[in-house]
Write a structure and sequence with these properties.
- The protein has 291 residues and is α/β, with parallel strands linked by helices.
- 37% of the residues lie in helices and 22% in strands.
- The chain is built from twelve helices and twelve strands.
- The strands form three sheets. It has a six-stranded parallel beta sheet.
- The longest helix has 15 residues.
- The two termini are 31 Å apart.
Length: 291
């Protein structure tokens, strides 16, 4: 058995009942369940339709996300999440670089690295090098003035934890930011790179080894083994090329507002919904959300 989930952005929720019923009838699906009025609905299927991606492309024009997945095992026991442009709306290194006067140069490198055009480790070293001499106190300034949480993140983490799930934040960014974001959202643990500083200023380097794509896969392996759960029980979410390893290994890997080349390599793509979409994909209703 399979489940078809359709959802849209909560801020502009206008999911059409007629659209849902038309698709359900075309695919011979079962009864529709509304997970959130005008925002998210699902129905069961006995087989995967051949035209899934053609329908997906048509729905994208209507600002509607479509996900098809096996019904069995879709509710997960662990969340493994990227931070930058996933749990927060910014790229931390871009915000630091802007304070240092290199914002445009660094944001261009970041975009290319996240799209898989550049080696992640080399691109990180190059960008961090431009931060040399920046006062360490700028980190707190950026956190306070520039960093905003991605909508739906608090509900995602709190609901999964309320239902026995474990939540880990794993970033190719920096511990100075993951510690704060993890504390705000209630993550059980966080991993990231450490910016090096001396005498109150950034040195322009990070501690080794650098946490990148493989380190995220290792986090999935290590944490799931420690918890005694299967990798199939993990829900992973990210947006960049360095997330692809964990997205492919996890039971469900979600490309959230991802770079085009990244989304193209993932079967679960959320382009319009926020982080609560990850709860709807597991069958949670809006009324199930923990606060």
């Amino acid at each position: 058995m399979y489940i078809a989930t359709l959802l849209t952005a909560p801020a502009t929720a206008a999911l059409d009942t007629a659209l849902i019923e038309s698709l359900r009838n075309a695919w011979g699906g079962g009864d529709v369940t509304w997970l959130s009025p005008d925002e998210a609905a699902e129905f069961p299927l006995s087989a995967m339709p051949d035209n899934q991606w053609r329908v997906w492309e048509d729905l994208q024009k209507m600002s509607v996300d479509l996900v098809l997945q096996r019904a069995e095992g879709r509710r997960k026991k662990m969340l493994l999440a990227d931070m930058d442009s996933t749990m927060i709306q910014q790229e931390c290194i871009d915000e630091l670089a802007d304070e240092a006067g290199f914002g445009e140069r660094v944001s261009t490198i970041t975009a290319r690295a996240m799209n898989g055009e550049l080696d992640f480790e080399g691109a990180l070293i190059e960008r961090v090098g431009l931060l040399r001499g920046l006062a360490e106190t700028v980190i707190d300034k950026v956190l306070a003035e520039r960093i905003t949480l991605m909508p739906g993140g608090a509900a995602l983490v709190s609901t999964m934890r309320a239902n026995g799930g474990y939540c880990a934040l794993v970033s190719g960014g920096f511990t100075a930011f993951t510690r704060s974001v993890a504390a705000q959202l209630g993550f059980d643990e966080n991993r990231a790179n450490t910016l090096l500083a001396e005498d109150g200023a950034l040195t322009g380097d990070v501690a080794r080894p650098i946490l990148g794509r493989e380190a995220k896969v290792e986090a999935l392996e290590q944490i799931s083994a420690r918890l005694g759960i299967a990798e199939a029980d993990v829900l992973a979410v990210g947006d960049g090329a360095n997330d692809l390893g964990m997205l492919h290994r996890a039971g469900t890997g979600v490309a959230l507002h991802a770079k085009p080349s990244v989304a193209a390599q993932c079967d679960v793509r959320i382009n319009h919904g926020d982080l609560t979409a990850l709860l709807y994909l597991q069958g949670y209703t809006r009324g199930d959300f923990a606060t």
